Amino acid sequence: MDKKQFxxxxxxxxxxxxxNFTKDNMLQVADISGKNTRYFMTxxxxxxxxxxxxxxxxxxxxxxxxxKIEDWFSSIExxxxxxxxxxxxxxxxxxxxxxxxxxxxxAMLFALQLTRLPEIxxxxxxxxxxxxxxxxxxxxxFVHSHQFAIAYL
Length: 153
Fold this sequence. Notes:
6 helices, 6 strands, about 45% helix
């Protein structure tokens, strides 16, 4: 039986979005986090991710339902990507108006982007007012679903 290959580099900005800003499949990046701004070129695969960002661990240190959240995001991105690409192609037409499906796709994209940022997980997990077991529950329900979070407990 084959072992599942787990996704470790989990993107908080989907690669299908980043690819819209590439030239010859490369992004020009300005790193402003240090004292001096640093410019470099990189591919969408090598930026805007953290290792195991969406993973939750059991009390024994093993992963709980490994890649469940990553796989869920991936399935949504598979649905979103062609709709966003179609929308981008039509944006040059000043008369173009969103249809209901494109409107829903944009709303979903915005909502997902707000929940999947590393800072969201960090704020929940670093909050001392929340009990440790509740932190993972809150995060899991925020980025996935109440049912998934209950299963974690």
